[in-house]
Amino acid sequence: MLCRRAVRAVGQVPLTLPLRGLHVSPQAQSAMPSWVIDRYGCNDVLRFTRDMVFPSIYYPNEVIIKVHAASLNPIDLSMRSGYGATALNMKRDPLKMKSMDTEFPLTLGRDVSGVIMECGLNVSYFKPGDEVWAAIPPWKQGTLSEFVLANGNEVSFKPKCLTHTEAASLPYVGLTAWSALNQVGGLNQSNCGGKRVLILGAAGGVGTFAVQLLKAWCAHVTAVCSHDASTLMKRLGADDVIDYKSGNLEQQLKTLPLFDFILDNVGGSTETWALDLLKKWSGATYVTLVTPFLINMDKLGVADGMLRTGVTVGTKTVKHLFKGVHYRWAFFMPSGPSLDEIAQLVDSGKIQPVIDEVFSFSEVPKAFLKLEGGHARGKTVINVISKK
């Protein structure tokens, strides 16, 4: 049997499999309910409509997913306010073929758990009726809608042990953590055993996933969070839990043995001292998820923003390399194959969803306010349909 990666690499349907053509159902001619924004701003820009254009398959590797559940991430709050609009609009329309403001009406939401409804010609790994999950890139229409269009390479079979509500809490944070730890940081099951890893900002969605992934890889994990999240951190397997409110965090961490790896979900002033906590000249690595890339492009434009970003990361990388440690930036990267690996960890019981609160589809503005309040312990999930 042909493996998934081989099919994806070739980009064509194997001759041993029947061709599945482009499907255009009667639904494809109609509209669908969605939560959209027509401008950037605060929570009052969210608007419910029943007239959002139903997605259509334009490319042979695309699928349409009926959304059962979605979830919110901090990037949804940022995008609601216009963060990253310059870079994302360039990705949406790189040749500037369309008029301005073509992103509106814009649907937010990156996570989806649901059922395949339609498949493009080259999609042989999925079929209508399959239960799947995915994280949709931020330059595409999001998942706070009845249906969403996805690239087949971004989609994976949903873990069998999870409901749609549970599954929707994991893809975006899981892939973000996977990118930082594995793709950028070079950590994996075979080389992580015994390594000392520090996670700054461990109680959020990415942090709770990262703690579990690192423990599944047998690392020693030190989690930094507030006191009220310490019980959760211990339950997820963290070896040491540091309350950043109980005193000077830098001084508390300096009393511990040096680390092999730091994952920074906080940014800001932490970067000025955190790298001093790494073992020098041992391959130790600091990876931050808080970067100025999109902000630079919003403020300076595409060309100058990219130049400023390149100079910044290059300067910091060289500076810290001379001090004996590696400095890296990491970003969310959509990946169906990575979700395949995450699904195996979930089904084996090594990673569990951490959900703070679940809202109905009619309560999307309330869910945004909940996320905006901060201090969430896990994810904010939206049940798009009543069935879980």
Automatic annotation (TrEMBL):
Which CDD domains does this chain map to?
Answer: RTN4I1
Quote any Pfam family the record assigns.
ADH_N
Question: What domain of life is recorded for the organism?
Answer: Eukaryota
Q: Name one GO biological process term.
A: ubiquinone biosynthetic process
Q: Which UniProt keywords apply?
A: Acetylation, Membrane, Mitochondrion, Mitochondrion outer membrane, NADP, Neurogenesis, Nucleotide-binding, Oxidoreductase, Transit peptide, Ubiquinone biosynthesis
Cellular location of this protein?
Mitochondrion matrix; Mitochondrion outer membrane
Enoyl reductase (ER) domain: which residues?
A: 41-382
- SMART domains found in the cross-reference section: PKS_ER
Gene3D superfamilies on file:
Medium-chain alcohol dehydrogenases, catalytic domain (3.90.180.10), NAD(P)-binding Rossmann-like Domain (3.40.50.720)
The pathway to which it is assigned is: Cofactor biosynthesis; ubiquinone biosynthesis
Which molecular function GO terms apply here? nucleotide binding; oxidoreductase activity; zinc ion binding
Give Gene Ontology CC terms. mitochondrial matrix; mitochondrial outer membrane
Q: Which InterPro entries match?
A: ADH-like_N (IPR013154), ER (IPR020843), GroES-like_sf (IPR011032), NAD(P)-bd_dom_sf (IPR036291), Quin_OxRdtase/zeta-crystal_CS (IPR002364), RTN4IP1 (IPR037397), YIM1/Zinc_Alcohol_DH_Fams (IPR050700)
Reactions performed catalytically: a 3-demethylubiquinone + NADPH + 2 H(+) = a 3-demethylubiquinol + NADP(+); 3-demethylubiquinone-10 + NADH + 2 H(+) = 3-demethylubiquinol-10 + NAD(+); a 3-demethylubiquinone + NADH + 2 H(+) = a 3-demethylubiquinol + NAD(+); 3-demethylubiquinone-10 + NADPH + 2 H(+) = 3-demethylubiquinol-10 + NADP(+)
Its chief place of residence is: mitochondrion
Protein family membership: Belongs to the zinc-containing alcohol dehydrogenase family. Quinone oxidoreductase subfamily.
The protein here is known as NAD(P)H oxidoreductase RTN4IP1, mitochondrial
